């Protein structure tokens, strides 16, 4: 399966298993989504389970909070992560705080899917990685898969989870892994082992990172598309990097991170999002706090630049294998 | 070519400021009994006149007139009057407690008691209100224990919200009262979503959404109307137009020469404009809307015209922006006085009984306060444990919150 098919399969499984699961968003119903993630689901489950929504992110999330308060399990889509901002009040002030402020009287077991990330010539409003907006909000879980197997398992786990989950989908990875080499043809998921996705129900736990590539020289903390870029950088520099795919950004798997950094003594944080106050700052602070006496070099951060995401300058902006590899070398030389 | 005159920005102003008198002619008050009562399945486009006139039942003499006059029995009416009185006495008592620093903050609903009280009588158990911070009469009508309300206000050891919420931000699921948020208007699309869920599950329950005149300017107001209309959601969309949003007159919210009810018609929702200080009109219009939505005929919007007689909150001094005696000139009067007169006319209430009930209720509120204060107040520091501060952020406490709780040493 591609990541698109894996996500669709997850939603299909949950629509089948739990009659309280409902799916809606812009172009999600009849048309099956602009990325085809919900293709065929309305035909199979009917218009009251899978339906089109008005172009109103605040309305989509606001009604989902109300549905969740009633007892449904809404899975709603924001067409691009770049367009979640109108729903910020409903996400931050409502979904995230419902359980806390009502002392458990009400809760919001909803999942908000958002295609995110760049590397597709998406320009300013089709490329952003806004995960740090969500990891900063207490009460939210923020999840981002990097491959079809995890995408399905994590999405099912997110839908089943009783906390509100922000489910970020790197659209650059929808059809195949991408290592940042935009000049080479992209291999489809059908040619990759991680495209072999089980049919039926399974979950990938929300509080566990994955050691994507074991290594001894340094630890890479990353997620989404940058997992593949980091792998390419390790290969091209010959540095034996241990790549940790966080999968769930917050609350995260600190144990796996600390064990790895304490083993390697070096740490590079890689993400597409802009650098300042990005999620990498939290990761670097955590590593500094928990691994201080094991660190042999300053923690490196390779991130998007502190600019809006440009169009023509796509590959100068996107943290590709060269920039990531250079950071690996710096971390090893210090 | 004609010469253009310089443009000028229009900034609406209330006619009445401190030291002068408000001209209430802008309200467009219809005579009692003059507005028609349409069938519950009326087309939204045919409610234009109902959205710009005013449904009223009680005339100036306290008699119930016209097609909206409901057939309410003696006991229900007496319960309604008693509940409104209870709400007002409770409010007054809590303002005193706030002045005594037993609680940090309070908001009264003085003058708006009829709306929640009568509306609640039109709803069934299982229906869900999505209230603002000024619908305490909904809880009073559902006979939620005042002691529990006061414990929330005191943030004490028995506070159902465990001291996490500012006073008046109640949450009472079993009484159909959704958790109140400080963020204005957010509950409006949530109510629509709750109603959509009821429809998705083939349930028979309806939602009732609440918002003030000022908060209709928030985007969530229009969002909710759009979704309610698009999905034919079983929701009553209440707009409580009390003329004021803190210091801001309703014309700044967009009420100048147009009613809030007409916004409903514009989005394809059957809409009514109702005298909010007329208990009988509130009950009749609420029943109409509940029957319509429960019958699957679509949502209904009701603008309740009333007046915020008290300060916005205990942190507010209205004499700085409006005439001190404004309420006494408000053409729709006092909801308690008007129902009292109606009941007296019918021989179902007397001055002696009024005084007796007033005294009873004052004692009841005082007793509830005493009972609540046994669990602590803000002054004596008997608040929920700091350890509970970390609970309910997530369903299960994650590791980082466990560690932070440990660091606090609780």
Automatic annotation (TrEMBL), chain A:
Q: Which InterPro entries does the UniProt record give? A: THDP-binding (IPR029061), Transketo_C/PFOR_II (IPR009014), Transketolase-like_Pyr-bd (IPR005475), Transketolase_C (IPR033248)
List required co-factors: thiamine diphosphate
Record-listed E.C. numbers? 1.2.4.4
Keywords attached to this Swiss-Prot or TrEMBL record, sorted alphabetically, are: Oxidoreductase
Q: Can you give the residue ranges of the Transketolase-like pyrimidine-binding domain?
A: 1-176
* Keyword Oxidoreductase in annotation: yes
Q: Which CDD domains match?
A: TPP_PYR_E1-PDHc-beta_like
Q: What class of enzyme is it?
A: oxidoreductase
Q: Name one Pfam family in it.
A: Transketolase_C
Among SUPFAM superfamilies, the record links this protein to: Thiamin diphosphate-binding fold (THDP-binding), TK C-terminal domain-like
The identity of this protein, by name, is 3-methyl-2-oxobutanoate dehydrogenase (2-methylpropanoyl-transferring)
TrEMBL record, chain B:
Coiled-coil annotated residue ranges, if any: none
Instruction: Tell me where in this chain the 2-oxoisovalerate dehydrogenase E1 alpha subunit N-terminal domain is found.
Output: 5-44
Q: Which CDD domains match?
A: TPP_E1_PDC_ADC_BCADC
Which parts of the sequence belong to the Dehydrogenase E1 component domain?
82-377
Q: Which keywords does UniProt give here?
A: Oxidoreductase, Thiamine pyrophosphate
Fetch the InterPro entries from UniProt. Alpha-ketoacid_DH_E1_comp (IPR050771), DH_E1 (IPR001017), Oxoisoval_DH_suAlpha_N_dom (IPR022593), THDP-binding (IPR029061)
User: Reaction catalysed?
Assistant: N(6)-[(R)-lipoyl]-L-lysyl-[protein] + 3-methyl-2-oxobutanoate + H(+) = N(6)-[(R)-S(8)-2-methylpropanoyldihydrolipoyl]-L-lysyl-[protein] + CO2
Cofactors, names only: thiamine diphosphate
Q: What class of enzyme is it?
A: oxidoreductase
Q: Which Gene3D superfamilies match?
A: 3.40.50.970
The Enzyme Commission number assigned here is 1.2.4.4
Give the record's family classification: Belongs to the BCKDHA family.
Q: Which PANTHER family match?
A: 2-OXOISOVALERATE DEHYDROGENASE SUBUNIT ALPHA, MITOCHONDRIAL
What does this protein's UniProt record list under function?
The branched-chain alpha-keto dehydrogenase complex catalyzes the overall conversion of alpha-keto acids to acyl-CoA and CO(2). It contains multiple copies of three enzymatic components: branched-chain alpha-keto acid decarboxylase (E1), lipoamide acyltransferase (E2) and lipoamide dehydrogenase (E3).
Q: What is this protein called?
A: 2-oxoisovalerate dehydrogenase subunit alpha
